[in-house]
């Protein structure tokens, strides 16, 4: 096993603005209607967007490794969530997404069956898909 650690930091600023420090810093916020200033995507959009972004990246890796002339990949994700739970209006259900659907368009000289097999390999190797579908331990600690 060759473990590698990915590190990011988040700092809450005024209103719902959160500044993310990583290889390419960015801002997460909420829409104006939800109390934010709409200065960036909200946390749910960031989470969901990581799946199609990872599918695109892993598709490129798999294609390069297999010598496939991949002209492009388009991935569209949509996810269902019960916002009443996260807003504390109910204790029934769960805070997370209950379903995530991804539609993937692969531009390469492959048959439909080859595209399906290719996408299956991409999904299998995608760390974001693996984390969304599986269980990863999460620990949070209060620090001084």
TrEMBL record:
InterPro entries: KH_dom-like_a/b, OsmC/Ohr_fam, OsmC/Ohr_hydroprdx_reductase, OsmC/Ohrsf
Pfam family, one: OsmC
Chain segments annotated as coiled-coil in the UniProt record: none
UniProt-recorded name of the protein: OsmC family protein
């Amino acid at each position: 096993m060759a473990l590698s650690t990915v590190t990011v930091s988040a700092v809450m600023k005024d209103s719902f603005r959160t500044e993310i420090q990583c290889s390419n810093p960015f801002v997460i916020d909420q829409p104006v209607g939800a109390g934010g200033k709409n200065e960036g995507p909200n946390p749910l959009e960031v989470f969901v967007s990581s799946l199609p972004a990872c599918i695109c990246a892993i598709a490129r890796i798999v294609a390069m490794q297999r010598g496939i002339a991949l002209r492009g990949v388009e991935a569209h994700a949509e996810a269902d969530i019960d916002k009443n739970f996260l807003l504390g209006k109910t204790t029934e259900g769960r805070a997370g997404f209950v379903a995530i659907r991804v539609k993937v368009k692969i531009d390469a000289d492959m048959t439909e069956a080859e595209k399906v097999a290719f996408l299956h390999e991409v999904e299998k190797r995608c760390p974001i898909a693996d984390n969304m579908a599986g269980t990863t331990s999460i620990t949070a600690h209060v620090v001084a």
